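Hi support team,

I'm filing this because I wasn't sure whether my run with zinc ion finished correctly. The job status page said complete, but I'd like someone to confirm that the output block is well-formed before I use it downstream. Pasting the exact inputs I used:
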Amino acid sequence: MIHIEQHGPVLAIRLARALFGRPLWWTSVYWVDGLLIDAGPRCTAPQLVRALRSLPVEQIVVTHGHEDQIGGLPVLRRQYPEARIYASMRTLPYIEEPSRLKLQLYRRLLWGMPQPFSDVLTLDAADNQIATANYTFRVVETPGHAPDHVTLFEPTQRWVFCSDAFLYGRDECWMPEADLFGVISSLRTLDSLRPERVFSGSGRVSRTPRPELHEKIGELVRLAREVARLEAAGLTVTEMVARLVPREPAVNWWTMGHFSATHLIEACRNYNSVFAPSAPHDNALFYTAGVDAEADPTDRGDLIR
Ligand SMILES: [Zn+2]
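And here is everything the job wrote out:
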C-alpha cells in the first residue's frame, strides 16, 4: 500500500504492507529535488519504484539501519543504477549484513527481510553534506531510536527530515534497544535547529514542530521523573509499570513483547541513572524536593535542579 502527499517540492510517500485492504504499520520515504530520503521496506519496493516513475533519483540517503529504511535498496539500485547511495558508517554493517538486525518474526512479516547490499558510500565521504540542484542538506546525528540514526537538515528552508528520531503519539511501550537519553538529547537537537517543517518517519509532516517537540520532550522527562519518584519510594519495575501504564497496548501482544511498557520504564531508569548517579532508593527527598512539576520541560537540568 502506498500513499503520496505533496508538500511544496517535497513528496511524502507512506508505505505499508496491507492486510484485508488495511495498512499494518506505516513507514515513509521522502523525495525532494532528485534526493530520496530512506529506501522503505523490501515488501513495498516495487510499488515505490512504480510511484516514483519518471522522477529522477540521483541520490539516496538512509537515515538508519532498520529494515523499513534499508530494505528497498536493491530494487532502487536496479531502477537507478547511477544513483549515489549514502549512509552513516554505523549503518553500513546493517545494510551489508541485515542478519545483524536479528529481526523478530513480526518485523519480517511487516516489512520483509532485507537482502544484503553493499553499494553504499559513507556520509563522511560526502563531508556530511548532501547537495541537490536547489538545496543543501546537512547531516545531523540523532541517536536514541537507533544508535546510528541521522537526520537531514536543510537550513535555508528549515526542513528537518528526522525519520524515527521523533515519533508522534504517547509513549506507552518501547523496544528494549531504544535509549531515552539519546532520544531526548536528539529531540533537543532537532528543536535547536528551529525547524519550520518536520518530516517524520511515520509520514506525518508538521507545520508547528517546535511546540510538538517541546510537548514530547516534556512528556518523556515527566515520565522519567515519575519513575524516579516511584523508585525512590521503593516500588519495583513491575509495580511501576502497573502504576504508570493502565495496561500493555495491543502492540505488546503482536510483537511478542518486543514493544513493552517494561522496556519504557527500564529506559527511564537508565536515563535517571545518567542524571542522578547516586542511589535513588535511599534518597527519596532528593527527588521529591528536587522535582518541579511545572518546570520548563526543555530544561536540561531534568532531575538535578
Ligand atoms: Zn527505525
